[in-house]
Amino acid sequence: MILLPTLDEEEGLADVLPRLPVREMSELGWESKVLIIDGGSKDLTTQVAQESGCELLQQQGKGKGAAMRLGFLHFLQADYDALVMLDPDGTYHPEEIPKFLKKLEHADVVIGDRLRGAMDPDAMTRTNYFGNHVLTWIAVALYGVPMNDLCSGYWGFSKQAPQVIVWSLRSAGPPRGPPNDQETIGFVSQTAIRAPIHGRLWKPPCMVK
Prior knowledge:
The protein is α/β, with parallel strands linked by helices. The protein has a single domain (2-202), classed as Spore Coat Polysaccharide Biosynthesis Protein SpsA, Chain A, CATH 3.90.550.10. The protein has helices at residues 10-16, 22-27, 45-51, 64-77, 97-103, 126-143, 162-172, 181-198; strands spanning 2-6, 34-38, 55-58, 82-86, 109-111, 154-158, 201-202. A seven-stranded mixed beta sheet has the order 3-2-1-4-6-5-7, with helices on both faces. Strand 2, helix 3 and strand 3 form a beta-alpha-beta unit. Helix 4 (64-77) crosses helix 8. The longest helix has 18 residues, at 126-143. It starts with a strand and ends in a 7-residue tail after the last strand. The model is unreliable at 176-182 (pLDDT under 50).
């Protein structure tokens, strides 16, 4: 399953969907299904998703954390062998999905490492670059997690990875009123932090533009 969390991403989604390496995945023995989790887009994002034949679900609440919750639950309830999630804003290269699937043959969780990959000069602002380093350093200091890019938007999970996902869902707990950015960051961080504890973790470099 390919999970794409969206919010007003009509242009990015229209660019990413045709670039999904369906043929290459099929040659590797993978059948792909695209799940769009939309956070209440006001543009033509949902129309692009429907016209492309993607499964579309509307998330409850706001933020990427809420989208991940719903996507993870859908993954656990269905009979998928793997989940690859990427931000569909054109930042990440969907052509790299087969690389993630190959890594999942020997790992339970794969996190694309932007800092060790090929990054365009304008791909990340100085503020985001510094903030990512600070959050990653805190995670390493507190939990001993060998992590380089805590805030990556490119993930892969094997069928054996639900331990990681279930822990994140339980730790986040039920939504308490309208979700906010702090809860979203907490949910994403918990998933990243627990990944190497509950499963084998790989962090391949990924391209970012």
